[in-house]
Amino acid sequence: MKFKNLERYRTGGTSSKMQLSVPLPTTPDGRVYRFSPNEHAHPRHFVLGGADESFVITDEARRRMKLPPRSKQTVCPYSGIIADDEQFTHPEDLKAATKIVEQAAFADVQDAFHDMFRNLERQFSSSKFLKIKTTGRPSTKPKPRFARRDLLRELICDHCGRDYGVFAIGLFCPDCGAPNLRLHFAREVELVLKQVGLADSQQGQEELAYRLMGNAHEDVLTAFEATQKAAYLYGIAQLGATPSKPVKNDFQNVEFAQRRFSELNIDPFSTLIPAELTALKLNIQKRHIIGHNLGVMDEKFADHAASARLGETVHLVGEDIAQFALLAQRVVESLDTWLAGGVPAPVGADPTTKPAPSMQLQSADEKDVVTNLEISPLAARVAKWIAEQSNNGLGEFANRDALMKAFAETEIRELAEAIAELAMEGYLLKSLTTGHVLPHMRPTPDLFATFDPLAEIGHPISDSVELIERILASGDSVNTASLHEATGWPLRRFNPAIALVIGQIGENRVSKTSDNQYPARSFHMIADDRVALKRYTANRKQ
Q: 371 in a domain, yes or no?
């Protein structure tokens, strides 16, 4: 008897005693479904894709790995345990393989019986006493197909180049076992900043924009809490212990989180200076106000923010959310280093990429900026390009793809360093990022003030002085739209100048807006503000 259908899966043995191997079902993107053998590794499910064979693995990256990549073993991304690949086969996939073999064997038996009766039909074709009639070859059941869906969180390990996907929070790369916690959270930050960009685009729909901002802000804390909790529970499991008490929402509070992590003899918040820690705590409280009090400030929030006014809506702008996300990322970076036994994550671009020479400055003015501000020529060119690309001078997110295209001859690593340099000097607000991707970035008023003149766009500083003279000659309450209308200036000229003015006003007297029209809706001045504006004007006229 021939087994032509089973032969498709034969990997060894004889024709009568075959060794069979059935390929595992894959997701639409070609990933293999995996299932951790550790029953405590919630949620156990993950997918494993291919690897970039051109990816260069550095010695620095290998120091953080649990095993050599592309081996015949897999690392559970949730618990870190290592086992042979076959131990990660999902039980449903084993059932699927059995069904495939059963279907192939059944088809072979059908074919054998059909051929047998076909032969009998020919043998008795001339008989007067016995007639055998066969129909066409019997139809076989279609080959079983098993649907697989890709998971929501897709990552590429920046240590070994392996593509994989996880549910919830993944701590380790399934291929090499290197901690990927900071990479996981960086993906959260990227998505949050996209939400902020979407909110900024809702012109004339302030309520919708505020709701989108609130959702983005809440997503930061949700991801931050889940990431801390996953790291803490992993650490407790490594000690062979159980949490001293239920975790609940302890990781929504810095002090409670520090107490939890003290059980593991670590304090991931120690990487933040006091001012940063205060900002982190304030943003956590903002989330509680937005999530539980419809954004209306109460007495508890007033204890954390001196500028809080009871009964008013807590203000939210993109810079606040970006700051919250980046501070949380710093804490996660610390946890990621702890997971690697104190070895920090490698940073920078692919070391095999040949560096390209930095773009040279084209004008004497730009050379003067480099000399006076002590920034690199490349950083000055990037800042000038960002100023030139701005449509409204408000500080919208720079287009990263367009930036890379404009500086195509520059290595990504050098470009990322130029952006970091501008951020350190206060010209940009940027997100943290890992691997070979540029961060999200937004210009500050100082960038326009310095580089608009070089780009021959305008002179925000002298314009701000003119605005202050108008403002001081009017009342103490200023409506930004009315002031803009009175100047008759284009929005691109007005916004950088008014942003410099608003920077001199006490934050609690500025009514911020998220409509992507102006940097603030209005502001109110007291004596302190008027003095600050007069001194600002006097210094700029010298």
A: yes
Query: For residue 484, what is the domain's CATH number?
Result: 1.10.10
Q: Which residue has the tokens 């051109």?
A: 54
What value does the mean pLDDT take over residues 230-243? 92
Give whole-number Cα distances, 364 to 277, 358, 371, 455, in Å.
Answer: 42, 17, 10, 13
Domain shared by 55 and 157, yes or no: yes
Q: Average the pLDDT over 341-348 and give the result.
A: 80
- Give the pLDDT band (50/70/90) at residue 233: very high
Within a 13 Å sphere around the CA of 388, how many CA atoms are in the beta-carbon half? 12
Choose the final residue of a domain: 175, 208, 239: 175
The single-letter code of the amino acid at 327 is L
SS (H, E, C) 5-52: CHHHHEEEECCCCEEECCCCCECCCCCEEEECCCCCCCCCEEEEEEEC
pLDDT tens digit sequence for 221-231: 999 999 999 99
CA distance 194 to 314: 21
Whether residue 407 is found in the same domain as residue 479: no
Q: Are residues 263 and 411 in the same domain?
A: no
- Shared domain for 213 and 322, answered yes or no, is yes
Query: How many distinct structural domains can be found in the chain?
Result: 4
What are the structure tokens assigned to 72, written together?
């015949």
**What would the mean pLDDT of 357-373 be, rounded to a whole number?**
43
What number of other Cβ atoms are within 10 A of residue 281's Cβ?
A: 17
Q: What SS3 state is found at 153?
A: strand
**Which amino acid does the sequence have at 316?**
L
Average confidence score pLDDT of the chain: 79
Sequence-distant (≥ 6) Cβ neighbours of residue 370 within 8 angstroms: 361, 376, 377, 380
* Helix or strand run (H / E) with residue 524: strand 522-524
- Could you tell me which residues come within 8 angstroms of residue 48 by beta carbon, excluding any fewer than 6 positions away? 31, 32, 34, 74, 162, 163, 164, 174, 175
Report helix, strand or coil for 443: strand
Q: Which helix (H) or strand (E) holds 284?
A: helix 274-292
The residue among 122 and 323 whose pLDDT is bigger is: 323
- List CB contacts of 336: < 8 A, sequence separation 6 or more: 179, 180, 181, 182, 345
Contact between 415 and 357 under an 8 Å Cβ cutoff? The reply is: no
Query: 40-71, pLDDT tens digit by residue?
Result: 898 898 989 888 888 889 999 999 999 999 99
Express each pLDDT in 142-194 by its tens digit.
454 444 555 568 889 999 999 999 988 899 999 999 999 999 898 888 888 88
**pLDDT at residue 218 tops 50:** yes
| Residue 390 counted as domain residue | yes
Q: How far is 102 from 92, CA to CA, in rounded Å?
A: 15
